[in-house]
Prior knowledge:
By secondary structure, the protein is an alpha/beta fold. It has 3 helices and 5 strands; from the N terminus they run E-H-E-E-E-H-E-H.
Amino acid sequence: MPKEFLELTSLDALIKVAEEAKVIVRMDPLIIVPLFGLTFFLDLRKLREDEVKEIFTKFREKIVLVNSIVMEDSIINLVKKVMS
């Protein structure tokens, strides 16, 4: 099923959304913020270095770093894949 992702283009917009979120997902180069059934994202490459540092400092307690995404149709298949 397709899902919509709402792109943010500024630090100010991200701050407004991220302050309300319980968790912020970092999967470089993206910051992904699920909020109220919507999924917002910001491409960190579009920000200045000082703006990126501000995000990491301000929201360090909420940011979860994701190294990779694995797609499986069941938890059993995920376990098999990870264990092999």
